Structure formats: C-alpha cells, structure tokens
Amino acid sequence: MSASNLPLSFVNNPSPARWFRFDPDRTVHLAVGKVEIGQGILTALMQIAAEELDVPLAAIRMLAGDTDAAPDEGTTSSSLSIEVGGASLRLMAAEVRARMLERAAQRLNCAASELAVVDGAVYRNGAPTGQDYWSLAPDVDLLRPADGRTAPKPPSAYRVVGHSVPRLDLPAKISGAAFIHDMVRPNMLHARILRQPARGARLAALDETAIRRAAGGELQVFRLGNFVALLSPHETVAERAGAAAPLHARWENVRRLTSAQQEAAFLLGQPSEDRLIGDPPQPVSGEMVEARYTRPYLAHAAIAPSCALAESRGGHLSVWSHTQAVYPLRASLARVLNRPAETISVHHVQGAGCYGHNGADDVALDAALIAEAMPDHCIRVQWRREEEFGFEPLGSAMVIAVRAVLDASGKPIDWTQEIWSGTHVARPAMGGNMLAHEALPTPPPEPRPTDPPEAAGGGGTRNAIPHYAIPARRILHHLVPGTPVRTSALRGLGALPNVFAIESFMDELALRIGADPLAYRLEMLAEKPRAARVLTRAAEMAGWSRRGPGGNGHGMGIGFAQYKNRSAYAAVVAEVEAEREVRLRRLWCAADAGLVVNPDGARNQLEGGMLQAASFVLKEQVTFGETGVSSLDWQSYPILRFSEVPEIACELIEAREEPALGVGECALGPTAAAIGNAVAHALGVRIRDLPFTRERIASALLRL
Hey, what's the torsion of the CAs at 530, 532, 533, 535, to 10 degrees? Predict the structure, then answer.
C-alpha cells in the first residue's frame, strides 16, 4: 500500500510497540485509540488483531483510550472506527506477524515462507518448532516504524473476521462493573455544579447558608469566578446541595429565550455564513417543484448523565472520562489549565452510551478544575439529569428546502438542496469552549462556529447530495453562527434530516407521475448496483409487492442512502398505522458494509440506529423556556419506550471482498425517511416537519 493511501491512525502511530506488547503470561496486550461507547468496537478490533496474528481471542487483553499507553487515534466518531482504526490495526498486526516470522526464520535457518503461525506458535511445514511470539518477542524490534507494505491476509483466509463473537464489553456491563458512575477511588469527594445559566451570566448572590441547610451534612463550597462546585464526602449530601443551589442563586445578565426560537424556522433570515457546493446554478428548462422539511433541536438523551473523576497528585493530573477523544480532551484541559499536556493523563472509562458530543468533556473540566484546587483528593463530578438536558450541546435544528427541475418523464435533472443549520462540531479541540471555561474569571473568546469540511463528510451538509443519477446537483449551505443554544455533534450530524428531505421528496416526485416509489428510485440507480441491491433486498424482505394504495391508516414507506455517500449503504422499509398518532409496526433493513468483522455487532448497530431514528422522528424535540432549555426530564423530553419498539429485521449483504465500511450511522437517515414515507402513505397527506406529533398529524389531516 502506498504511503498516500495509508489509513490515518496508522500514519499517526507508526510504531508497532504503540499497539502491541507480548506479555510473559502468554497474552497479547493490544492498545487502541478508539473507545467503546456502546457500539461494540472493541470486540471487532480484537477480532481483527486475532485474525492477523493467528492468536486466540482469549489471549488478547485490550486497553482503549488512554493517553499514557494507547495510540492517538483522535475522536471515536463518524463511523470511522472500522474504516480507519480497523484498517490501521490490520496493517499493524500484519507487520508484527511478519517481523516475528522473520526472526523465527533466522533462528531456524529457513525461509519465512516455510513458516506458519497457529495460536501464536510457529510451525514449519506443519510441524511445531518450539518457537512462539513470546519466545521471539525479546529479539524483535517493535519500536521501528512500520511502512504499511506488508500485505494482510486475504478475506478468503479469514477464520475469525466475518464471524459473530460475543461482545467483549457486555459481561461487565451486565454485572454493573463497567461504568464510570460506579468508580470508587481513595479519598473521594462528590461534587455537583451550580451551572452558569448561559455565557456572560454573572453570579450576583449565593445563599450558602440556605444551601448547607438543604444539604443536611458536611459540605464545601468551591467558587472560581462564576464557577461554583458543591462538595461532600457523601454523595447524597452533594446531590441535595446541587438540587437546592439554583433556588438560592441570583444571576445577572441572563439571556432570554422565546418559544419561537426552539423551532427550526427561526433559523431562516438569521445572519449566516453561506457557501455553494457542487454544480453551479444554470438555466434548465422543465417543471420546477419544491418542498421544505425541518428538524428541531435534539438532545443526546443518554440514559445516565455525564460523569468524570479527577485527581492531582505530585503535580500530575489524572482524569477519568467517558469522552470520545482522550487526546483532544487532554489538549483542551492543558489549554484551559495552562499546564503542559504531558502533566495530564486522560483515561477512558465507559459511560452510559452516547453517540455524539454530550457533556462528557464539560464534566471532565469541572472535575479537573476542582482537583487542581484540592490536590490529593479524587474529585467525582456527576451532572444532575436537569443539568444534562439543560446544558449539554444539542443537535442543531435544521431547515432544508429542496428544489428540482423535472424532465418530461418526471425525473429530476437539476437538484438544489438549501440548508439552514447551526454548527455540528463544537468539540473543545475543534474550536468549541467547555462550559466551565466560560464561567472562569477570564473566559475565552466566543468561538467562531465552523462545520466539518466536505472531505470529512460535512456537517450540516452531510448526505445533502442525492446518491441518484441527477445531471446537476448542488448545496446552498447557510451556517447560522447565532443559534440560541450551544450545538455540536449528534449521531449522523446533518445526515438524518438531509436524507429525510431527499427521500421524502423522491416519494413526492414518484407520486406526481403515479410511479411506484421503489421502481422510481431503481431507475435512477441503474449504474449503481450496490445501492440498487440494498433497496431491492429491503423491499423483498418487507413484501413490498403487498403495499396497497394507502390513505386508509396503514402505510409502508422506503428510504435509502449511502452514509456520507462513501460509507455503508442502507435501505429501510417501515410499516406503520397512523390516525391521530403513529404506531410503528415493523422495520426491515438491508445494508452493505463491505467486509463485516462481526455480523452480530453490525446488526446491533443497524438496529440501534433504526430505533434512535424512530425516536427522533416520532418523539423528540428540545423545548425552550425563558432562561434556557425547558425539556429537563423524561416527561418533557420523551424517547421511544420499550413498549413501542417494533419488530425489526436486518440483513447484511455479502460483500467481504469489498473494503470495510462504517455502519454505525448508516441506517438513521433511511429509517427516518422510511417512516416519513410510510406515514404519508397511511394518511394520504405528507408531514414535512419532525417530530410527527399528534398535533402535526391533526394539522395535516385538516389540510385534506
């Protein structure tokens, strides 16, 4: 493989010693920079390493996300852990195996081609040699950088990759031993934070006596500017203090919000940074049709709130966090605390599961600030539920206007997708600020919002270019910097609303000419067989041929996308019943992710993405009160309940000779579109604004 084609994690961490160590207990120590956030990635990476090294899965010991001892793989995001992290690990493991065999050949005075590895032991022409990885390791230089020229195994030789194996992370989770919330360290103090209502707010008064009385136990109050922490050796005392503190604090210069600002339509007409992507506009003859779709602000809604631990001992700061990015977090902490990054260690510990930028980085700074001021204590900060909903970065609201010029047959020949959105990346290492930093005596400048470039898949523009054969396609992107609340990465970034808009519009175009929505799509994918294959298979799984005329309360809809137009392909069919509200009955998904490492894990990801998308479409919307977010609990921010989970069937298209494609986010957009199209089919009228609340359904029916 040429240097220009090497995966990024390999390029940034070229020393095999950064990844592998062969320990005396005959285990393989494997360190990776990608972290487990509920997606099963550690199991898949372990399979890749075991496959290339020819060692048993049970012999591998994993370390993930640790600035002291793991490679720097950036952020675990964007469905890149297998595409980039897995590809890097495969090359690195192949290099290690080759070096071991070279050394064994020298010892045995034979050609390396005569040797093979079975369960870590070296065989020559089928006979054991007495050599193995552990006897060879002391004489093999793993510090020397790898060049990526050692070819990994061909897929035809795989015995571990491509087969389902049990998830590595589940036993500890089932027994309650995996989560950061359950960590206990010596000399630990529990902390809750009195949160600054918004950037620029000033704490004018704080009734500490009233807070102590409500806490009912030993309590310390730590204040640094407008940052206030309430600490106790007893968590119940700290929790009572945290609940009472907002009632006994008076803030000045607090922003005011209106309910109108919670709606996506508020973004229209706001100042924006504009750009054109794709084909330049040009005069095209034909009928023009257009429609507008919206998505509201969304919360990550992790089941447990954010949590972090930090302690400063001997001038070194250690932080335990469920961040998606240990090295970027370390760099951000170093910048805020004004200390060398080398004096900080960040260790990943699994949290409650969250895809995107929630409060994990913010709470890590909360804990670090207190630990700096209270050395030799372990400071444990856990956000309260109201704090999580009220202050985590949100997924941005979006408005998407689609305009198409149609030819005489009713097919689009010119497509414009115009998007209004806030930023989808305000991670600290990408120019965003952490909450506590803004509350310090010298707050940082207000960040200038940016969005991921198209080379990285885009943010608000992700999946905004249709995958279909349309001669001219373009995006008009309006990045709105002045959103009323902080926004950042939520699973899929802008892909879900963009695919929802594209695939809803495709159904509307098919309806205009009386065409079957599936046949209409397939005609426009004639030169894209992998895309057509997932659409065809999903339709077969669902029995698409039984789809009736609709309008009778029962509907079936379809949606398709290739995530980022270069990652995994997914097509989803949804079956619903819709009258005053939507009841989701069944979901079917066919996906092509190229080489699939752990099929069971990949199906888990598809199913999880489908359910989260269904929750977004049917339930979720952040609401605003006068001083901030008002949807602060599970009643005001409902998510899909277990009783509302439909039957789900997922099938992976066999494509093991193709490169592995990220599968974690590919099903979200197609699921949202499939549900939207199914609801339109059931009702005989289209709803273009998410979520599909009872009020929106009633309003749509009144238009009939």
Answer: 130
